[in-house]
Amino acid sequence: MSEPRQVTGSPSASAPGRAAQVTFEVHSRGAAPPTWEAIVRRVMHENPHNPCDGPMLDETAAAILESDCLRLTFLTRADHADEFFEIDEEMLESAAGGLEAREREILADRNLIIVAHYQGPWDRRLSYYQVMVHVVDALADLADGVIFDISRETIWGGAAWRREVMEAGEFEIDAHLRIEAVAEPDGSTWVHSHGMPVFGCPDLEVRGVPAEQTELASWTISTLAQRMALGLEAREHEGFAFGSRSSLWFARGENVDSHFSGPVMRLVDREGASDLRAFLGACDQVDNTVDDIAHDDRVEAAHQSALAALPRLRQRFLARADHPECDYLVKLGFPAGDGRSEWMWVQLHTWHADGLTGCLQNHPTLVKDLHYGDVVHFAEKDVFDWIVYDGRGGEEGNFLRELIAQARQQSPAGGGGPGERRDARSRSP
Predict the structure, then answer these.
(1) pLDDT at 246
(2) Residues 161 and 184 in one domain
């Protein structure tokens, strides 16, 4: 059955030459596809989950729906039986958020596949992707179907789709990207992404990852993918700064057996090693000096200055699409027993009303149940200090910097330059 309309928008703030490709499928038991008029009406006015009610999104949705970048194709079992591949139990079990019994029944008895494909300009606000999400949600509602995210290679359970995609206030790459870790014959792990063509970018891979550093490699890919989705360009033979370091470089990867849906970039260390052991193992060589600093009036004054400026940090972080090259870190205190705290830097990954998440950037000395690279969850009230690295060698924040520098000058055991992200842990908050 042919598509009712072939529709690619011209979102604003697009990047010349950067094209996005987004593909979803909706699998349904229905025999008759929804009409084009019903799809448009649901997208623009009637979506019960998250309607296109903002002026900018309204404008972008109208442009895309009237253009030729969006293509809808309807496949019926009667006419395209070869497209109705077998869905095994492993695929069902791996569905994002899990599938309800009714959704499993739909997949078992499906008669219709609706393919929604966007190929057109990428824009920094990802408005084209928001419109595609609304289109797919409308199709799933109208056809009573189950959503397949082809780029991410994921089946979405309806509840998880609404919670993580439709109702998510802030864009987070993890809801739109799948990171896979595959054991290699030599005992190492191949960590790589699926889904980056959605943002006009190559997928990312790291080869030869030691088993104990798989989580760190996954977090590295996720963090870098978020910045690329929001505008950072990945160019072969160019370096990428993680905060104050420039240890990551891009090299062209090999799409062996068409494992990826598009091009792939391999992350290598500055020496060109393809297994990134030097970067992922960097925590074993970095300065890990513990600065024993008492919580006096000067520390408290610096802390209050950091708190007063925290709204500025939040505003910058939430607008990070405008500056994808920046790193955002906060200092947190972790209970270490005997009334002491170990203060360590955490690189921010998400910031929601109900809490923040980030990746630990220190090797704990006193806290035994945490490790460098661990993902931690915390509240806004837990932030003691913060830093923004601008990717060009500059920084903002770091309110305790001068106090730490003074402590190191007075202590022969002190080490490392002032203001480094791995600079301080103190015995009291």
Answers:
(1) 47
(2) no
Query: Tokens 């607008």 map to which residue?
Result: 319
Residue 39 counted as domain residue: yes
Range of the domain at 215: 176-281
Question: In this predicted model, what pLDDT tens digit does every residue of 382-414 receive, in sequence order?
Answer: 999 999 987 777 888 988 887 777 766 665 443
What is the DSSP code (8-state) at residue 82? G
Helix (H, G, I), strand (E, B) or coil at 7: coil
For residues 74 and 66, the answer to whether their CB atoms sit within 8 Å is no
The per-residue pLDDT for range 142-199, each reduced to its tens digit, is: 999 999 998 888 899 888 888 888 876 667 787 788 999 999 999 999 999 999 999 9
Do residue 268 and residue 316 come from a single domain? Answer: no
Number of domains in the chain: 3
- Judged by phi (left if over 0) then psi (alpha if -120 to 50, else beta), residue 198 lies in alpha
In-domain check, residue 38: yes
DSSP string of 140-157, one letter each residue: HHHHT-EEEETTTTEEEP
Query: Which tokens belong to 111?
Result: 């008669």
User: In whole angstroms, what is the distance from residue 221 CA to residue 59 CA?
Assistant: 33
Please measure the distance between the N-terminal and C-terminal CA atoms of the chain and give it in whole angstroms.
66
Whether 334 and 190 map to the same domain: the answer is no
Estimate to the nearest angstrom the gap between the alpha carbon of 355 and the chain centroid.
16
Q: Are residues 145 and 228 in the same domain?
A: no
Q: Are 396 and 332 in contact (CB under 8 A)?
A: no
